Amino acid sequence: MNTISTFIAHFYTHFPDQKGVPPWEITPSLSSVITKKILELNSEDYAINNGMAIHKTAVIENGAVLKEPLIISQNCFVASHAYLRGGVFLDEGVRIGPGSEIKSSIIGHHAAMAHFNFIGDSIIGAYVNFEAGALIANHYNERPDKTIWAQVNGISTNTGSIKFGALVGDNSKIGANAVLSPGTILSSGSVVKRLELIEQNN
Fold it and tell me: How far apart (Å, rounded) are the C-alpha atoms in residues 21 and 51?
């Protein structure tokens, strides 16, 4: 597929070691990638403890559940009852609303999950907005063959994975209660309507 920077302009600024690696091969290893990245952070700017690095300007409301490893960058906001687990990176200015779950995912700068969102095994670009209840599915529970295929520029690619969510390009807007099926690839500036299902055809 095209490089991730085709979809997310500044991805390799934070993750230069991932050049040439497709997104579905990055998300399964996020725990080790983020653990390594924590060692590179300036401890004067971050509170680093038990595999979690939280910038001193970030706001974490009471009741949020945070599990290592994770990085929460400057000026992020994580609301009460949000749940972050499995290797999570929040870039600068990300907002995670109440009741949202983020699992094994990278969220680009100034992206926002409104509330009651699930983002699983995914890479999300900058200035992406998820309205309430929008989800990224990361597994084909209903299929006998659970292998995930991704479509890029009309070409289907077997990811070889049974757990991968989506790659969502910069400045995309995902409407309330929309669902992105496993393997969804959205170019920059995509708009998904409310209640819409984005389905891969394999």
Answer: 24
| pLDDT tens digits along 35-64 | 999 999 988 999 999 999 999 999 999 999
- Please, are residues 91 and 126 in contact by the beta-carbon 8 Å criterion? yes
Planar angle of CA 35, 130, 134, nearest 5 degrees: 100
Cα–Cα distance for residue pair 76/66, rounded to 1 Å: 14
Strands (E) located in 79-194: 83-90, 95-96, 101-107, 112-113, 118-120, 123-124, 129-130, 135-136, 149-152, 155-158, 166-168, 173-174, 179-180, 184-186, 191-192
The sign of the CA dihedral 119, 36, 43, 49 is positive
Which is it for the CA torsion 136, 178, 133, 61, positive or negative? Answer: positive
Contact 10, 92 (CB under 8 A): no
Nearest to 75 by CA among 111, 42, 116: 111
Q: Which of 105, 117, 114 is nearest to 166 (CA)?
A: 105
DSSP 15-58: -GGGTT--HHHHGGGHHHHHHHHHTTS-TTTEEEETTEEEETT-
What pTM did the predictor assign?
Answer: 0.97
